[in-house]
Amino acid sequence: MKNYRFIFALWMVLAAAACQQAPKQESVAESADNKDASSMQTDTIKVYKAYLQVKDNLVKSDGSAAKKSAGDLADHLKKIKGCSEAEDLADKIGDTEDVKSQRMLFLQLSNDVIPLIKGMSNKAAPVYVAYCPMANEGKGGYWLSAQKEIKNPYYGDEMLECGEIKEEIK
To answer: Count of CB atoms within 10 A of residue 85's CB?
Structure first.
């Protein structure tokens, strides 16, 4: 009888030790996944903020400031896997101070950045997708905004309020 108690007690100790080992391994893997997800979230937020700077500079028709902010945006896009085309577009915006060229490139850049931001979870504030039907030679163009108020980056002062909010991303 004492042997059975000893074996039972030993089995309980081994079982308890095994149960404690598995969660530690899983939590390390979960922690790595959470760190990667958290890092991706942080990088995406930086992209969004830099994108808004480019947009705001184009609203003001400030090619020099747009050039600088596009360089910052390209730096943040480098950190996100799968954003090399968007990075190239941001670099091209950063290579010129010609606002008309920057706006055409920004149109293409927006088409790449909008899906990235839509995929971002846990947004602190709503993100708006705005649309101007006259941009891109009448073909229309989208951009992201932090406000509902329309400030058109494709025309600046010429048609500052041309456009409408098409979507609110929460």
So the answer is: 13
Give the model's pLDDT for residue 77: 97
The number of helices, as runs of H, and strands, as runs of E, in the chain is 5, 3
Residues 6+ apart with CB under 8 A from 161: 150, 151, 152
Q: Which of 101, 81, 82, 100 is nearest to 91 (CA)?
A: 101
pLDDT of 8: 38
How far is C-alpha 76 from the chain's CA centre? 9
Helix (H, G, I), strand (E, B) or coil at 129: strand
What is the reported pLDDT for 122? 66
Give the number of other Cβ atoms within 10 Å of residue 117's Cβ.
18
Please identify every stretch of the chain with a pLDDT value under 50, giving residue numbers as ranges: 3-35
For 23-88, the DSSP string reads HHHHHHHHHHHHHHHHHHHHHHHHHHHHHHHHHHHHHTT-HHHHHHHHHHHHHHHTTSTT-HHHHH
